[in-house]
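I am still learning, so can you show me any protein sequence you like together with the matching structure tokens, please?
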Amino acid sequence: MASNISNMLGAANYSYLFNNTASQRQNSINSLWSNYSSFQSNAASNLGALTEIKQNAAAVVDSYNEAKDTFYAEFDSNMSALKKSASNIKNFDFSNVGENPITKSAETDKDGNVVKDKNGATVMKTTYSKEMQSALDAVKEFIGNYNDSLNFLQDNSAVSGRVERMASMFGDTTYRSSLYESIGINVGKDGTLSIDEEKLADTIANNPDKVSRILGKDGLADKAESHVDTANGQRNNLFPSAKSMLGNQLDAAALYTGKSMINMTMISNIGNLVNMMF
């Protein structure tokens, strides 16, 4: 049995415990216990620090997962809303806006008096037919969803190169700005869109085919759907992995913590074995 135990402890060079005199063996035992106590003390101290590293690493991972989940939730919401409103515009009948789609009349106050501006001119009020209002609302929803998607991608462009490219793709409205502006859709320098409601309504009323062509199935709505499909196709690769975003720190923390637990187990086993022997 002593031989077997000696072999077990050979790597640690403790075989001399069984081969020396009683006095020498006692000194060796005392030295072993002293070293073992130091190991325990140092390991406990180091384990406390490494446990803190592990806890901090876990907090970082939790933050990463929360950021990733938030990103994808907003991404999915924006893409879904834009896809739906773009499909609606592609199929919208802009020619069906009623017989009197736009009505202008003098604005009056609560006493029925005609309202004048600071120059003395009569303030005119514009009223749209139900069908015209429906058309304007559809375009407003589409433009709003497009801007939401573009702003989201621009705000998160630093997350990854793919997101940055998506933002650039959605911002490509600037190269057709003159065409969009001809129907009442203004284009900002960053690619975001805004509506000149009066001009848009007038174009819908007088040239609905032009609006359908520029916004519809061969226009901006079709392009928006294509952008959404491209973005959804790359969805799972838009947000970087935890390792690529956080570097090697998490691996290092897990590695050191894991080794610490192994070392503590080894030291504990040595102590138990010595207890059995003596």
